[in-house]
User: What shape does this take?
Amino acid sequence: MPTWSNWSGRQTASPTAIVSPTSEAEIVDAVAHAVEAGTSVRAVGASHSHSRIAAPDGMLLNLDGWQGVVSADAESQRATVRSGSRIFQLGEPLHEYGLALRNQGDIDKQSIAGATSTGTHGTGPSLQNLSSSVEAVRLVLASGEIASCSPSERPELFELARHSLGGVGLITEVTLGVRPAYRLHERLWKESPDDVFGRIDELIAATRHFEFFWMPQLDACACKTLDETNDPVDDLPDLKLERIGWSHNIISSIRDDKHTEMEYSVPAEHGPACFNEVRAMILRDFPDLEWPLEYRTVRSDDIWISAAGGRETVTISAHQDIGLDDRDLFEACEAIFRRYEGRPHWGKVHYQSGEDLAGLYPRYRDWWRIRDEHDPDGVFVTEDLARLRP
Ligand SMILES: Cc1cc2nc3c(=O)[nH]c(=O)nc-3n(C[C@H](O)[C@H](O)[C@H](O)COP(=O)(O)OP(=O)(O)OC[C@H]3O[C@@H](n4cnc5c(N)ncnc54)[C@H](O)[C@@H]3O)c2cc1C
Assistant: This one.
């Protein structure tokens, strides 16, 4: 029996079959087989979601054989890439065209379709999540049709496909808005949370990317800023707290320590109060917690089910060791996030029902209605996705 597990090993599943297509025609065939067999079909990217959003209960499509840049154009600042491409595989090819992604998250191991399907984001008050950079999508629908969509071509299908939760179709290509290549100056330092929050607005406004990890055992923040610079690349190995490099070499970090994670997005103006409430709760109720809280910002967007939809956003993430129970910690965090109008990250642990989610997103029922129109038999709806149906 084939098995699947996510990056942390906390989520496992038993797909009925694992298929590894290497062409669009093979992807169409695989979807047709799943339809014929009456099973669901789930594409996985890097299986880096902490939630069960990628968990397959029918056919699993591994897209590692379907990667690469299809085209890129410096003038229109657009690039079309195959859906299984990992983000780290895009940096150098785009750089050869003088281009770069507008922003990236903490790591670059995710596939582009996996990242855009869950609203993956980095940090920066002027920077939106990756789904907001999607300008067109090509996907295989349950009917077997290969559909192209964009804001001007089948706009409702595009609305779902740019942030798809894997539930709309099998994405084969994503066209991204990109920008001219740029260098970033990274600065790292440690500071007390009270001092950070004493100047948090200034820190966020004065830099392109600001973030920190609060370490509960030290009650201290590991802070990081990134700013655009024209200075030359400087990667002297002894310069540990400061360096300059091309964006694709600087933004993402290595995060190999296996953990499980909950993240909520709250309206930016509530960020400090919400963070400090979670911090006080952890110091009081989880004094042994060794994993940090992360604090980031995301610019608002207009995507129906984006956690940053319609509001400037602060994201707060809680982590736990994979060897330890996470439920008590995450439930205690979630209770606070809910009071601050929090919306859960689609790729991280949460305990919200479909009805709860419908209360967080005005267009959530529309999202499901249009999804159902394109896939009436639910070929792209796993049991875990069905739990999110309002
Ligand atoms: C160490 C670590 C660091 C992280 N850092 C960040 C961060 O900085 N910011 C952030 O926002 N998130 C972060 N995440 C979460 C992660 O970015 C998301 O969970 C993302 O979805 C993972 O991408 P993936 O390629 O692994 O997708 P998967 O987890 O494999 O899949 C996610 C969803 O995409 C769907 N999908 C994948 N490919 C296709 C396709 N071709 N067609 C249709 N649907 C598809 C899947 O079915 C599933 O529903 C992190 C996770 C980890 C483990």
Observations:
- The chain has three domains: 4-62, 69-180, 183-344.
- The pocket of flavin-adenine dinucleotide is lined by residues 7, 42-49, 53-54, 63, 83, 105-107, 110-111, 113-115, 117-118, 120-121, 164-166, 170-171, 255, 345, 347 (CB under 6 Å).
- Residues 107 and 302 are 25 Å apart (CA to CA).
